[in-house]
Amino acid sequence: MDFGSAAHEHQLKQYIISLLVHAAYADHDFSLIEKKYLGYAAKSLGIAESEVATIRLNPSVYEMTPPPSEQERMNVLYFLLFMMRADQQLKPEEEEICHHLGFKLGFRRELISDLVNVMKDCLDKDIPPNAMIEYVRTYLN
């Protein structure tokens, strides 16, 4: 992911991790598989485990304005959706925070609902390659 200056890029990656922590704690049960997904996301973003541990202590410190690019915001939403699905359960609290954060990222509630429904339909199986893309295309400018 390229978000601009190195400092801004790092800040945005910390923000993504903080959102994932918020999502994982939404149901008051940060499961082992959610921790593994958080580790996977951090590794793919280039965030060290020690930094993830710091973010987990106080994720609210890492709040920032969502990125201006629709593609970058969509990447953040995808991370959130997959965190919500990581433990193969989708609890109402997780769905609620996904809607809240997705709306905060600037996405229409209908798009968020459609993508959450894809996650629900595919909790115990692979998501078909174009399932999410088809919904996204109908809403993007």
Characterise the protein shown here.
- The protein is mostly helical and 141 residues long.
- It contains 7 helices and no strands.
- The chain has helices at residues 6-25, 32-45, 49-57, 70-85, 92-104, 109-121, 131-139.
- α5 (92-104) packs antiparallel against α6 (109-121) and α6 (109-121) runs antiparallel to α7.
- The model has no long low-confidence stretch (mean pLDDT 90).
- It has a single domain, classed as TerB-like (Orthogonal Bundle), CATH 1.10.3680.
- Helix content is 67%, strand content 0%.
Give me the secondary-structure topology.
Blueprint (H helix, E strand, L loop, with lengths): L5 H20 L6 H14 L3 H9 L12 H16 L6 H13 L4 H13 L9 H9 L2
Briefly characterize the structure.
The protein is mostly helical. It contains seven helices and no strands.
CATH class: Mainly Alpha
Largest sheet: none
- Mean pLDDT figure: 90
Report, as a whole number of angstroms, the end-to-end distance.
21 Å
CATH domain fold name: TerB-like
Strand content: under 5%
How many DSSP H or I helices?
A: 7
Radius of gyration: 14 Å
Number of strands: 0
- In N-to-C order, the SSE pattern is HHHHHHH
- CATH architectural grouping: Orthogonal Bundle
Shape: globular
